[in-house]
Every structure is written in structure tokens, then in C-alpha cells.
Design brief:
1623 residues; 39 strands; alpha+beta
Length: 1623
């Protein structure tokens, strides 16, 4: 058996073949042997229970045509050749390289949903639908088949080219390893494809694996559509977060699917054991190993029928009937399919795009299509969907792989371009702020920070970027930088942070003017113009936020510094804005890479390596320094212990931070820490239960769509929604009504409008104790509570103590009412830890990506401790998971898409967009400012205006700068805009100017005029110099082009035209010309380059003209040759030459010579004369051919006649051998053939030789075989009828007249060789039970023989020995099935036989044999049995014997008595019993009555309890006994009698009281009780008292009866006894 190596790459659903539909891929290595064993044991075997019943596989795929294997059955030989890298068609090597350890096959496994698998047992149409759907999905995967490119510039790269060709073997199975119904297909893809050069090469499956979810959804969609076409109703199956994962058939209950999911249960159990042992979830490959380890061995001796019987046996009779009824209903109902139209498909695409691109900038086509299919399973036409994606205008095809291109929204493309262009256009437009400022004066330890601050303060750009690695001292650098800004006159400094908690930290560190990004962008009150804005942690800004910041900065004239680290975490929304600027813009970058936070040298070096992107090297360093600890399943407990060590058993919690990457690990680590904190009594007191809300982090686009919500989901309010809910509160969805959500609090909201106010998630319960640390998730600004704010639970359940970011107490507040948006605060995720610092950090993680690794580990100053279950697993994940998201510019840099894929919008569109925003280009502002200044100069002659301006300036000076040491720096734009503003101020009354002032004004004006004149003259001179230089340059270029060019018209290059146009623009604006560029001085280089291009154009033009001329010559030559050949072919056709037309050797040589000349680029030769004058040669050739044809025709007719004579002789011999005494007569077909041959010979046509002339014996044998079988069938039918007649006549000594007549009629049918009558044709008097049973048995035997393929007469087959051999092989099974039928018939009749009260000896023997048959006790040869089988046989015999003895015993028991029958009738009338068997014996009747009496007694007690419940004083007595401890539990619902009996039983031995004793004494005195009782009064108990009281009551009752009797007999005497008075 070959060594099989399974490596699962991508899984959809769970890792088994059970219950959930999946589509996965497994790499298969068959390295031992030829691969035949793998084919035989795993693919073509009948699933997992038989190695004898084979499953046929078929070759599929476009590449199958290359091997002539398409749709052919897979054989082990072909499979083995592919495994050995051998071409099965040529037996040559298949691909260039043999990879001994590489995969030879890729098994793409497709499993149907469990409901479909269950229903396929009852409806085979579903199996065919599954096959069709699998092929559709595999066709989509095949489009992505590729080959690695390793030549030219692709050497040592991972580049590939798509081939779209596969060959794979398709095997469909219907059972799992646990023998549950599981319809699945193995598509075993051979590791070969064909590149565009026609060579076979190894297959590259990378894109196929990436798109495997898409393939799975294609399968789901196609399968769901086909299920609806077949009449089945489907229902979407969602996970607990509301996401659609697959579909199921509505008619299959969940309990049946769960019952048939034993394989999944086994794997889940193995996964749980793995987690318990290793402390982490298994990887994909380990998951597959678990799947293999849980596989049971194949049942090699079972059959498909037995397995199906076993499967159906797990269903109840009712369930089986319901599933059969579902199939019948589906067939009757017809199709339910509904396919979306094109417009609906486009609409679905748009809904998906908004959600997917909320967190991604660019996606491949398969991701988009997969999501649309997933949300509309069974409703999407795949081809329409592919076409519709091109109709979504807001989406652009970026190119890449044609089969699976990249797509990005136009908005994202525009934002990336705008971000880069905005930064690049705003360079060198300001003055340096404070280049003279000296940062950290006298402190050499901050040299790097001082150099960075100097660079920032000297920058003339609007935007700058400051990258500081974790722990480099960004905060202290920014504090010193702000001092430098203030020294340069910048007073408005604003810091912007990503979260409210981050702004609190900034304010604590001295940055008072701090706000969040959202507040900065959305607030109506913006920082004043000219402010300096610092964006802290800018790496957390999304692309959308970053672009808005750029726009706002240009609009309000801000200068902006972006501070961050691209290797730390990025924003949740799409776009890595900070890295985009850092990698692709010309923004001026300043970096700090010296780390100061970590005090341990090795710790600091490791963090530095992370900051530089060398994460594997950092991992090795940390491991060597014992910072990383492997704890297997105890790693969380060890991390909690380390935390307790750092915090000194929880006494100093601010000394350490606990970090875990996932919510699951956070919860487990929190539980471990809290247990230890309870032991240390840091948290104490009785815990109270609180219900908290945890978000599912759904995209906002998901929240806008009401169809995503399901009743029962929990939503939380993230901000106040007036009249609906307050921030932090939660409610549930009661129903979804169209676009509205109906809440349990009675309110209704529109999902789209509420998406900014709500979140969706789940409620969980946590325990809160005094001292517990909690963290808020939703802002409550009124209480200064923000997302991330921490608090400590106080002893008062209604209050919490709010903490600062460093852990210090801030204030004690009331816990917000109904607020559920919080959780434990002991452990934080790496995202929330970014920006925090502590002395030590403890990280517990199963796996980390590079960003989380860097962020989490860099939080500590002194020590770091990383705990994981498996170091190697953590290291592998660190190498694979970068944590970065791809931008469009990344794709261009990696050459995955062409650079022209993101061309900006067209100019008209750009102008239209520009109208919506003001133009804040710096140069435009300067131009408008200059125009305004010219107007100012024109008004300088107005003396009153000058005085007003001077007076206003003096007033401003006195108000703002009079008491300052120095004048603050004002930018150029600020000064100019100030002057322009002054023009619009209200005029002030000023005194008349003096003569000195007027003279001074005149002198200033003259000086200004002189300077202006000098400037104009200088400018004119510069323009004359430029014009002369330009004219000389152009003339040189023209002269050189005329001498050395290719004769083309001289034209300036684009660079020259643009430069000249810019100069003309300067001139129109009355500006000086730009300096001459270097290329004008080195004009010869440009001239030579352009001349060379011109010559190349000339050469290409001449070559093209030559090629066109040559093509015309060849077109003429081809036309002439075609006409010549056509005329010669027509000549042959006119003369009816029967041979195929062929070129003469001279013509073929001429054609080859012409082809060679054309390949060499030569002109065609003229057609030789001997070929042009072909008529004479052709006439001779035709005459020769006709003579040859006549001779050949004569020979053929002679041969045909001889063959016909031989045929007739052979047929006669065959007739003599098997039909002696009969002459062979020609059939109608043979007679028709003879006539046709005569006509053909008459018309000189070729003789026709039919196939049956050579194959007549097979046809004759087949006819004889049919005759033999018909005869055998006739004999077998009559044999059975004779048996029927014998059975009917048994017991009859003489036949009646009608019976004798019928017997003669039957014999006539036999003589006429007709079949005997069927049961329906028998006379009424013959249709007895015995006869019907015989006919039924005959019909069943015939069905069994047909099912096994046994024909009549196969037992003694004289014609076809194969039939006899086949009969011998099936004889035992035939006998076994017939015996099984006989056994079932006897078992059906057995109950009726056993009802007979007086059976005869023969019937008792039949009953005994039936019971032994029931237990299968009839074995022909007991000696051949094994010891275990023999013991089992003896055990069955003992059971049969016991049952027969019981039967005989029951015969001895007399029937039920009349009294019992009467009592049973009474119970029937009282509705205690519906009916009872008629043949009840006395014993059974008594058992039945016993149960009915108990039931009657029970119902009487229930009635008494309803009518006579216990009285109050009785209940009080019981309650007193219970309080005294004498009654354990107070009884409920008892009657008065039961209560008294219970009291009497408890108090039986209690002493009697004096009252009770007095009653007994009174009875003694009255003579009712004897005087001997008086001796017992001293120790009288309650029980004795009640006995005596009852005795006294009986005595009184007897006396009363006696007195009444005497009164009736002697009334007057009694009256005298009473005092002589009559009544």
C-alpha cells in the first residue's frame, strides 16, 4: 500500500465528511509502489465497507483530451502511470522534473449537505444533481490552474501563468467511514498541466487553493438550484453570528441529520482531546491527522444492500414514511427554482461590495463572487453574475490574472492617488518655522531626537511624517518639538489621537489641546487657520480618515505632522494610510530607531529587530534569553502565575500588563488570573452575577441591511438613540419586518438609519467581586467614561471606582443603570495595548501575527514573558502571518497588476469634482494675492486711505504686541491676507496730513516706481535672452534632424513643448522666465536620440511597405494555385473517378518549395509550365484509373459470389447440426440482400458486404439461445402449474365434472405449447389459500432470479457455457434468498397458527419448525462451524426450545372464566380498557385484571383527593409534626383519610392525654369496654387509644342495632323500660 501524505490546504465547514457541506483539498503522495494500491483501496472501493464492489471513476478536465481519456473509465494502469510521471499515451516522461517527495495528486473533495445525503437514499435524482454541481465547481477551479514561470526575469520568483487545463479522476461515494449516508466526490487532480508552449509541466495550485471557498459556493449554489428544480424547499443555515454557511433541505429534521453524523462527533471528540493535551487548537494538517486517526477500518465483507438496510434501520417507521412522502411530494410539486435577473444580481453585488470593501482596499474576483453566491444560494446564474460585475461602475477591474483579476472601488483608487498627490504638491511652500531652535540643549543623550526636531522645524512642507519605533521616546520628543513650535511663533498646537483614552493620556502628559480623530473631523469648531496639527498613532488612521485630514489641512491652512509606526497595528477600516505615505509619497520622513524604553539590553535588541521587520531573528533571541516559555496545556495558568509574580501577588497591579490576542484566550486567562487573585484575597466577597454585552464586530454595511438580522439576536446601543435606547444598554430583536427591526422593548427602528447607533453581539454572564477590574466599551461622556476606561468594583454593588490610565484612582461613581457594554479588564488584546506601557508585560498566545508580536512584546520596560503551548507552532505562524493589508500601490510594486490600472479620473470628471471643493493650491493663492496687491498700489495716491491704514496698524500694535518681548513670526500668507482684510474695514477719521508727511509719501512712491521700472527692464532683458536661446536651440535641432533624421517632419518633444508652454505662461503672468534646463545646453543628446527614433521609424515604414508588397504577391500566387487545383479537382469529378483526389509529386514538391520561400521572406515563384498544362496528363491518368477500377470491380464481384456460396454452405451445416431434417430457408433480410446485389452488379457498383455475413454465427447462437430459454421457461412454468394442480387435488378422490373439463382444457394448452394459466385466469373454485401461496412463491422466485440475472435453463445450459458458470457462482445466493422468503412466509403465518387452541399433530410440528426457523437454527453442517458460531447456534436453539415449551405450556392453561370476562367487560364500559384479546387464557386475564384494578384504585384515590382534601386542622397537625422533626416533608395534594392515617402512624406510640383516657374510662363505666382495660390506662398510647375507641364504637353500634331490633319487635315493652311513656 502506498504511503499517503494528506496535507489539507483550505477547508470549508468542519474537517470531516459529516453533516456540513465542505470543499477541501488534500495533497497526496503515493511514494511506495505504483499508486495502484491507493487507487484500489481508497478510490474505486465501494466507499468504506467493501473491497469487492467497485466504484467507477471517470477522467474529466480539459487536459483529458490530450491523453484521449475524456469521460473514459479510470483504470489502475493509467492511474499508476500518472503517479510515476509517465505519459499514458506515449509512455514517455510526462513532466521535465521528477519530484520524489512532492505530491503526485491533489484530492479536491466535495461533500453534499447532510440533508441532501439523507434524501439521496430515497431520491436518486439528487445524486445526479450532486455530480453535475461538482463538475460546475471543478470547471471554475480549472480556470485557475497554473504553471510556475522560471525563465528570464522570473527566475527565483513565485510568478505563474494561468493554463486553465486539468486532468482529474472523478469518484463519487455515498457513505462515510461510520456507514452514515454521506454523498461526496473525490476529484483527484493529477499534478500536471500544459503551458502555452504546449509542454507538460507540474501544476501550480496556489490560486486554486485561494479560491476554494469560491468553488465551494459555486457548488452550493448549483446544488441548491437543482434541489429546488427537483421540488425540494431549501433553508439557509446560519452560524451563531447570523452568517449564512450553507443550506439544508427543509424536509429533513435536525435530529435525523445529527443521528447520521457519527463521524463528525468522533472527530470533535478527538479535537477536544488534542486541545486538552496540547493547550491549543490543531492546525489544518494536524486536524487532518485527527481525521485519519479516527477512521475505522473498512468493512471488507459487507454489501451495498446490507449497508443501506443498516442505514434505514436507524430510522423509525414513521420517519422513513415521512421521507418517502417528501420525495413523492417534491416530484408532484415540480420546480421551485427562481433565478435572480441581471438587475437583481447587480443590486446584490452592490450590497456585498459595500460590506467587503469596508475593511479591504482590494479583492480578487473570487472573493466577491463567493460572497454573492453565499447570500443567494440556489438563486444566482453564475454566468450572469460574472457579466454583472462589469456593470458596477463604481468598481474597477485592476487586471492581473485574467481568470481571477483584482477589483477595487473607484473611491479607494481616488483616495490613494489623492493622498499621494496632496502630499507631493504641498512641498516647499512655507517658511521654516524655527530652524535656529536647539532642542534638548546641553543633553547629548537626546542627540537623535534633537536632530529630528531640527529637521521638522526646518521643513518647508505642509505635511511631514515622523516614524518612531515602539519605546523610542516619541512622547518626550513631541513635548520638546512643541517648545520649538512655540519659539517659532506657533501658538495653536493640536494633538489628535485615535481614541478617547489615548487623548486622556496625552492630556496627562501635558498636551491639553487633544482630541480624537472623529472629533477633529466631525466637530464644527475646528482649530484656527495656521494651526499645527500632530496626528498621534497615525498608523491607526484608515485611508478615508487620512484623506479627510489632508483635505481639512489644505482647506484651513494647517501644517500637519503624522506620527506613527507602520509595523504596529493598523485601522479596522480599509487602507493603511500611514504606510501608503511612507512607501509611495515624497513626504519628508523623519525616524527614531533608538529604543529607550526597554532597560534589558537583549530585550531592547529583540524589540529593535521587530521594528526593523526581522521577527524570526527576534524570536530566536527572545527564546535564547528565556523570555519565551512553552507550557502545553498549562500555558495560561503559567502566564497567570507570572503576572502574580510581577505584581507581588496582586498588590501592585500597575506593574504589569496582561496581553492575549483573542477573546477566547482573554477569557481563559482572565479566569486563571482571577482564581489566583481570589487566593491572594485581592478580589474578595460574595460574587454577584452580571450580564455583559460582547460585540461581534460586524461591518457597518452589515448593520445597514435588515435581512442580516434574525429574531433573537442581541443588539447594543453604542450611543444614545433618542426614544429608543441609551448608550450601553441592550435589547433583543423580536422580529424583522422588511427594513425595520422590531425590538423586545416595543420600539421599531430602521436598520440603515440605526447603523451608527447600534451594534450586534451576544450576552454573557460574568461574576463581579469586590476588587475586580472592569473595562468599559461604550462612551458615556457625561460621566467621562470612554471606550477603554478602566474601573474597579467597590464593596458597594452600585458603585465603581474609575481609574486613570496608569491605574491611579480617579473618582467613585454610580455604575450606569442598565449599562452592559463592559467586561473584565484584567487582560487586554494587543490592539488595545498599543500606546500603553508598564514595567513588565505578560503575553499568552497560541499564535501571533507579526504586528501583534511586535506591539504586545514592546509594552514592557523591565521584563517580558511570552507563554505559548507550542514554540514551533508560534514560530511558524509568525513567519506566515504578516498582519498587513494590501493596497493598490502594493500590487503595482509587486507587479501583480499593471501600473496603468489606477489612472486618475478623466479631466472633465476631475473638474466636476473640483467644483464641490475650493481650490486651495498655494500658487493660486499667491496669484490672487498679487492681483489684490496691484489694486492696493493703485489706491496709494489716496492720502486718506494711507492715513486710515497707518492708524489701524498702530492700534493693532498697541493691542497685541505692545507688552510682548518680541513680535511673533507671521507667515507670508498671513501678512498678505491681513492686508487684504484691512481693505474692508470701516474707515476711521484721521487728521489731515502735514507737508512733511506728503513729501515722505512722494519720495516713497518715486523710489517704488524706480524699483518697479528696474524690475521690468530686467525682466524684458531676461525674456530677450530666453527667446534668442530658444530660437538657436530649435534651429540646431532642425538642422541636425534634417541631416541625420529619417526624413520625417521635425517636431518638438513633449518635454520641449511643455517647457515652452510653461515659459509662455510665466510671460502672460508678467513673471521672469525659468532658468534654461540642462537639456537645452546638451541639445545634441536630445537631437541624436530623436534622429535615431526618426531613422527607426523610417526603417520600420520601409519594412512594412516591403512586407505589404510581399503579402500582395503571395496572395496572387495563392489565388493562382488555388484556381489551378480547383479546376483539376473539378476535371476528375466530372469524369466520375471514384478514387480520392491527390496532388502529383511535382505539385507537392512545388508547394513545399513555395512554403520554404515564404518562410525565408522571398517572393513566390511562378507555377511551372508542365503543371499549368495539366489536361493531357490528367486525361491519361483518368483512362488508366477507369481501367484499373473495372478490373478491381470484377475481382470484387468474384470474391463476393464465393463468400455468398460459403455463407449458404455454412448456414446449411449449422441447420443440419442443430435442426436436423430441416432445410435452411433464407430470411427476408437475406432475400433483400440478394436482390440488392443483383441491382448493384447491373449498375456496375461495388458489391456490398454486410456485417452479418461474417458474424452470422453469433446471431444464430443468440437466436438459438432465446429459443432455448423460451423452452426452458415454458417447461418451468408447466412444472410449477403441475405442482399447483397436485396441491389442489390432494384430499380429493374424484374430480367433479367442472374440474375434469378444466383439466382437459389445460392439457389442450400444454399440447398447443402455450403457457399455463396465471392465478387470475384460474376458476374461482381453484383459488384457494394454498394455491395462492404457491403462485406467490413462484412469482417471488422469478423476481429473485431476474434480480440475480439468472435466465431460465441456466442450470443445464448447452449453448452458452458462460451462463452455466454464472449460474454456479450465483446458485448459493439464489437458494439463500428463496430460503429467506420461505422463512418469512412461515414467520408471517406463525402467529395465526399459534392462536389455534386445539392444534393437531401436524400443525404443532409446523409451529415447532417455524419457531426454530425464527431463531435460524437450521444449519446443514454444524461441524464446519467455528467454536464461537457453534456456541451461538446452541444459544439460539435453546431460545427456540424455550419459546416452544412456553407455547405448549400456554396450551395447557384453560381459557379465561366467565367471571373474568364479565369483569373485563365492566372495565371496558368504564373506559379503563378499549378492548382485550378474544383468546385470553386464565393466567393472562388475571394479570390484565390486576393492572386494571390498580388503575381503578389509583383513580378512586385521585377522586377522593379532589372531593375530600385534607382539612385545615389536619394540615396544621402535619405542619406541627414537620416542625417537630417527626415528618421529613409535608405531603401535598392528599385527602383527609390519608392525612389522618399519616398522623396516626406517626403518633402511634405517643402517650394518650387525660381527655382521651377519660373517654376510655367513660366507655368502661357504660359497660361498653371491659374493666380489664382500666389496668392499661396508666401507660396507654395513642395507638392503643384509637384501637379501644374503635372497639367502643363497634360495641355502641352493635347495641344500637340490637335496640332498634327490639323496638321493632316489642315497642311497648321498650317504652316501659324508658319510664312508662309512649313515644
Amino acid at each position: 500500500m502506498p504511503l499517503i501524505d494528506y496535507i489539507p490546504v483550505v477547508l470549508i465547514g468542519i474537517m470531516d465528511e459529516e453533516h456540513r457541506a465542505m470543499f477541501n483539498m488534500t495533497k497526496i503522495r503515493a511514494t511506495n509502489g505504483s499508486g495502484k494500491s491507493f487507487y484500489a483501496n481508497h478510490l474505486c472501493s465501494n466507499d468504506y465497507y467493501s473491497e469487492h464492489e467497485k466504484v467507477q471513476g471517470y477522467w474529466r478536465g480539459e487536459l483529458a483530451d490530450a491523453f484521449s481519456l475524456r469521460d473514459k473509465v479510470v483504470t489502475s494502469e493509467e492511474f499508476s502511470l500518472f503517479q510515476r510521471n509517465v505519459n499514458p499515451k506515449t509512455l514517455d516522461r510526462l513532466t521535465q522534473k521528477n519530484m520524489p517527495g512532492g505530491p503526485r495528486f491533489f484530492d479536491f473533495q466535495v461533500a453534499a449537505p447532510k440533508s441532501v445525503s439523507v434524501m439521496s437514499m430515497f431520491d436518486e435524482r439528487l445524486i445526479e444533481a450532486h455530480r453535475e454541481s461538482v463538475r460546475i465547481a471543478m470547471a471554475e477551479l480549472e480556470r485557475l490552474a497554473a504553471v510556475r514561470v522560471r525563465d528570464g526575469e522570473n527566475v527565483r520568483t513565485n510568478n505563474y501563468e494561468t493554463t486553465g487545463q486539468l486532468i482529474y479522476a472523478e469518484f463519487t461515494h455515498d457513505t462515510s467511514r461510520e456507514l452514515d449516508p454521506q454523498l461526496h466526490t473525490h476529484n483527484v487532480v493529477c499534478n500536471v498541466t500544459r503551458s502555452h508552449d504546449g509542454k507538460f509541466k507540474a501544476l501550480e495550485t496556489l490560486e486554486m487553493c485561494r479560491a476554494i471557498r469560491y468553488a465551494g459556493k459555486v457548488y452550493h449554489n448549483a446544488m441548491a438550484a437543482r434541489c429546488r428544480e427537483l421540488g425540494y424547499e431549501t433553508v439557509d443555515v446560519r452560524d451563531k453570528k447570523g452568517n449564512i454557511v450553507w443550506y439544508d433541505l427543509k424536509c429533513v429534521p435536525d435530529e435525523i441529520m445529527e443521528r447520521f453524523s457519527k463521524r463528525r462527533i468522533a472527530i470533535e471528540k478527538a479535537e477536544a482531546e488534542f486541545i486538552a493535551q496540547h493547550g491549543r487548537k490543531p492546525t489544518l494538517s494536524e486536524n487532518n491527522d485527527l481525521s485519519l486517526s479516527t477512521r475505522s477500518g473498512k468493512m471488507k465483507n459487507s454489501t451495498k444492500e446490507k449497508v443501506r438496510e443498516f442505514q434505514l434501520g436507524q430510522l423509525s417507521h414513521q420517519e422513513e414514511e415521512e421521507l418517502y412522502a417528501a420525495v413523492k411530494y417534491a416530484k408532484a410539486r415540480g420546480t421551485l427554482a427562481r433565478i435572480l435577473g441581471r438587475e437583481e444580481t447587480v443590486e446584490q453585488l452592490r450590497k456585498v461590495l459595500e460590506e467587503l470593501y469596508e475593511r479591504e482596499s482590494v479583492l480578487k474576483q473570487d472573493k466577491l463572487l463567493a460572497e454573492v453566491l453565499n447570500r443567494n444560494l440556489g438563486k444566482v446564474d453564475l454566468e450572469v453574475l460574472k457579466e454583472s460585475i462589469q456593470e458596477v461602475r463604481e468598481l474597477r477591474n485592476l487586471g492581473g490574472d485574467d481568470a481571477n483579476p483584482y477589483y477595487a472601488p473607484e473611491a479607494v483608487i481616488e483616495r490613494e492617488l489623492l493622498a499621494i498627490d496632496s502630499v507631493d504638491q504641498q512641498r516647499d511652500i512655507f517658511k521654516a518655522i524655527a530652524p535656529e531652535f536647539v532642542a534638548f540643549a546641553g543633553d547629548k543623550s537626546h542627540k537623535k531626537q534633537a536632530e529630528l526636531i531640527h529637521g521638522l522645524l526646518s521643513s518647508k512642507d505642509r505635511f511631514n511624517l515622523f516614524r518612531g519605533v515602539a519605546g523610542a521616546g516619541k512622547t518626550s520628543t513631541l513635548q520638546e518639538f512643541c517648545k520649538g513650535l512655540r519659539s517659532g511663533g506657533v501658538t495653536d498646537i493640536y494633538l489628535v489621537a485615535p481614541t478617547n483614552s489615548a487623548t486622556d493620556v496625552l492630556k496627562q502628559e501635558g498636551f491639553e489641546q487633544s482630541q480624537t480623530v472623529a472629533g477633529f473631523l466631525l466637530s464644527k469648531q475646528k482649530p484656527p487657520a495656521g494651526a499645527y496639527v500632530i496626528i498621534d498613532e497615525s498608523g491607526l488612521n484608515s485611508l478615508h480618515e487620512g484623506v479627510e485630514i489632508l483635505k481639512l489641512a489644505r482647506k484651513n491652512n494647517y501644517r500637519v505632522l503624522f506620527v506613527g509606526d507602520a509595523r504596529q497595528h493598523t485601522a479596522v477600516e480599509s487602507g493603511d494610510f500611514f504606510r501608503l505615505l511612507e512607501d509611495y509619497s515624497q513626504i519628508q520622513k523623519f525616524s527614531l530607531t533608538d529604543i529607550h524604553r526597554q532597560q534589558n539590553e537583549e530585550y531592547r535588541r529583540g524589540i529593535f529587530e521587530c521594528a526593523m521587520g526581522r521577527h524570526e531573528q527576534a524570536f530566536e533571541r527572545f527564546d535564547k534569553q528565556h523570555f519565551i516559555h512553552e507550557g502545553k496545556q498549562k500555558y495560561l495558568e503559567e502566564a497567570a502565575g507570572k503576572y502574580m509574580e510581577y505584581t507581588e501577588q496582586g498588590q501592585y497591579l500597575n506593574r504589569a500588563i496582561l496581553v492575549a490576542p483573542t477573546h477566547e484566550e482573554c477569557d481563559k486567562l482572565t479566569d486563571a488570573v482571577r482564581e489566583k487573585l481570589k487566593e491572594a484575597e485581592v478580589i474578595q466577597g460574595a460574587g454577584r452575577e452580571a450580564e455583559v454585552f460582547r460585540s461581534w464586530n460586524k461591518p457597518k454595511a452589515w448593520l445597514k441591511d435588515a435581512s442580516n438580522f434574525q429574531p433573537g439576536m442581541t443588539i447594543g446601543f453604542i450611543r444614545n438613540m433618542k426614544g429608543i435606547g441609551k448608550a450601553g444598554e441592550v435589547t433583543r430583536i423580536e422580529a424583522v419586518d422588511g427594513k425595520q427591526l422590531v425590538l423586545t422593548n416595543g420600539k421599531r427602528i430602521f436598520a440603515k438609519g440605526a447603523s451608527d447607533f447600534i451594534d450586534v453581539g451576544e450576552l454573557r454572564k460574568i461574576e463581579l467581586c469586590e476588587g475586580d477590574l472592569i473595562q468599559f466599551r461604550v462612551n458615556l461622556k457625561a460621566k467621562k467614561i470612554y471606550n477603554g476606561t478602566q474601573a474597579r468594583v467597590s464593596a458597594d454593588p452600585g458603585k465603581v471606582e474609575i481609574l486613570y490610565s496608569d491605574g491611579r484612582p480617579r473618582e467613585l461613581i454610580d455604575m450606569p443603570e442598565n449599562y452592559a457594554a463592559f467586561d473584565y479588564g484584567w487582560v487586554t488584546t494587543s490592539h488595545k495595548s498599543q500606546g500603553r506601557t508598564a514595567e513588565n508585560v505578560v503575553v499568552a498566545a497560541e499564535s501571533l501575527d507579526r504586528k501583534a508580536f511586535y506591539v504586545a512584546l514592546s509594552r514592557g520596560r523591565k521584563e517580558m514573558s511570552l507563554h505559548c503551548p507550542d514554540k514551533e507552532h508560534l514560530k511558524r505562524n509568525l513567519a506566515k502571518r504578516t498582519g498587513e493589508r494590501t493596497s493598490i500601490h502594493d500590487l503595482i510594486r509587486n507587479r501583480e497588476i499593471p501600473s496603468g490600472a489606477i489612472l486618475p479620473l478623466s479631466e472633465p470628471v476631475r473638474k466636476q469634482k473640483a467644483e464641490t471643493l475650493p481650490d486651495f493650491s498655494y500658487k493660486d493663492i499667491v496669484e490672487r494675492t498679487k492681483a489684490a496687491l496691484r489694486k492696493v498700489k493703485a489706491m496709494l495716491s489716496d492720502t486718506a486711505m494711507l492715513r486710515r491704514m497707518r492708524k489701524h496698524r498702530e492700534r493693532l500694535f498697541n493691542e497685541y504686541t505692545r507688552f510682548e518681548a518680541e513680535e511673533p513670526a507671521v507667515g507670508l500668507i498671513g501678512k498678505v491676507m491681513g492686508k487684504i482684510t484691512d481693505l474692508f474695514r470701516k474707515a476711521e477719521v484721521v487728521p489731515e496730513p502735514t507737508d512733511a508727511t506728503a513729501q515722505e509719501r512722494v519720495r516713497d512712491a518715486e523710489q517704488e516706481q524706480e524699483r518697479e521700472t528696474e524690475r521690468i527692464l530686467k525682466q524684458k532683458t531676461l525674456w530677450r535672452v530666453f527667446e534668442e536661446a530658444w530660437r538657436e536651440y530649435v534651429e540646431k535641432r532642425k538642422a541636425y534632424h534634417a541631416l541625420h533624421g529619417g526624413g520625417e517632419v521635425f517636431e518638438l518633444t513633449d518635454r520641449e513643448k511643455n517647457f515652452h508652454q510653461e515659459q509662455l505662461s510665466h510671460r502672460s503672468r508678467e513673471e521672469s522666465p525659468e532658468p534654461l534646463p540642462f537639456w537645452m545646453e546638451n541639445w545634441r543628446e536630445t537631437a541624436e536620440s530623436e534622429a535615431r527614433k526618426s531613422r527607426d521609424v523610417l526603417v520600420n515604414r520601409l519594412a512594412e511597405e516591403k512586407r505589404q508588397k510581399l503579402d500582395k504577391c503571395w496572395a496572387v500566387a495563392e489565388k493562382q494555385w488555388s484556381e489551378l487545383i480547383s479546376s483539376r479537382r473539378a476535371f476528375y469529378e466530372e469524369r466520375h473517378v471514384g478514387t480520392e483526389f491527390r496532388l502529383w509529386p511535382e505539385e507537392e514538391a512545388f508547394v513545399q518549395a513555395q512554403a520554404a520561400r515564404r518562410a525565408d521572406g522571398l517572393e513566390p515563384e511562378a507555377i511551372p509550365g508542365e503543371l499549368q498544362n495539366w489536361q493531357e496528363r490528367a486525361e491519361d491518368e483518368v483512362r488508366r484509373l477507369i481501367e484499373e477500377q473495372k478490373r478491381e470491380l470484377l475481382a470484387k464481384w468474384k470474391d463476393a459470389a464465393l463468400r455468398w456460396e460459403n455463407y449458404l454452405a455454412e448456414r446449411q451445416a449449422y441447420q443440419d447440426e442443430f435442426y436436423s431434417g430441416r432445410k435452411y430457408e433464407l430470411s427476408s433480410e437475406e432475400q433483400q440482400f440478394v436482390q440488392q446485389q443483383k441491382l448493384r452488379r447491373k449498375h456496375e457498383l461495388k458489391p456490398e458486404i454486410p456485417e452479418w455475413l461474417d458474424n452470422w454465427r453469433q446471431k444464430a447462437d443468440a437466436l438459438r439461445q432465446r429459443e432455448y430459454e423460451a423452452e426452458a421457461q415454458w417447461k418451468w412454468k408447466w412444472k410449477n402449474f403441475d405442482k399447483v394442480w397436485r396441491v389442489y387435488r390432494s384430499g380429493r378422490k374424484k374430480l367433479s365434472t367442472s374440474e375434469s373439463a378444466y383439466q382437459r382444457l389445460v392439457e389442450q394448452r400444454r399440447s398447443a405449447h402455450k403457457l399455463p394459466p396465471e392465478y387470475q385466469q384460474l376458476p374461482e373454485w381453484m383459488r384457494t389459500e394454498e394455491v395462492l401461496g404457491i403462485y406467490r412463491r413462484q412469482h417471488t422466485v422469478e423476481e429473485i432470479r431476474n434480480a440475480l440475472g439468472i435466465h431460465p435453463g441456466d442450470e443445464d445450459q448447452p449453448i452458452n457455457p458462460v451462463r452455466k458458470t454464472y449460474y454456479e457462482s450465483r446458485k448459493a445466493e439464489l437458494a439463500e434468498r428463496i430460503a429467506e422468503y420461505d422463512r418469512n412466509v412461515i414467520l408471517e403465518k406463525l402467529p395465526e397458527w399459534m392462536k389455534e387452541r386445539n392444534p393437531g399433530k401436524e400443525l404443532k410440528e409446523k409451529i415447532r419448525n417455524g419457531i426454530y426457523l425464527k431463531y435460524r437454527c437450521h444449519v446443514e453442517d454444524e461441524k464446519s462451524l467455528s467454536s464461537m458460531d457453534w456456541l451461538e447456534l446452541q444459544n439460539r436453539k435453546l431460545k427456540a426450545k424455550t419459546e416452544y415449551e412456553i407455547y405448549e405450556h400456554r396450551l395447557l392453561i384453560p381459557p379465561a372464566t366467565q367471571k373474568q370476562i364479565a369483569e373485563l367487560e365492566e372495565f371496558v364500559e368504564a373506559a379503563y380498557l378499549d378492548s382485550y384479546p378474544d383468546d385470553l387464557n386464565r393466567e393472562d386475564a388475571e394479570n390484565l385484571l390486576r393492572g386494571l384494578r390498580e388503575e381503578e384504585k389509583h383513580q378512586a384515590l385521585e377522586k377522593e383527593r379532589r372531593l375530600h382534601p385534607a382539612k385545615k386542622w389536619t394540615l396544621r397537625t402535619l405542619e406541627a409534626l414537620h416542625q417537630a422533626g417527626r415528618l421529613k416533608k409535608l405531603p401535598e395534594g392528599i385527602c383527609e383519610r390519608e392525612a389522618r392515617e399519616l398522623i396516626n402512624a406517626i403518633t402511634e406510640h405517643d402517650p394518650a392525654n387525660e381527655f382521651e383516657k377519660g373517654q376510655i374510662r367513660r366507655a368502661i363505666r357504660d359497660g361498653i369496654l371491659p374493666h380489664s382495660v382500666e389496668k392499661r390506662l396508666a401507660n396507654l398510647t395513642q395507638g392503643e387509644y384509637r384501637e379501644l375507641l374503635a372497639q367502643a364504637w363497634k360495641a355502641r353500634k352493635a347495641a344500637a342495632i340490637e335496640r332498634a331490633h327490639r323496638e321493632q319487635e316489642h315497642p311497648r315493652q321498650v317504652s316501659r323500660d324508658r319510664g312508662g311513656m309512649d313515644r
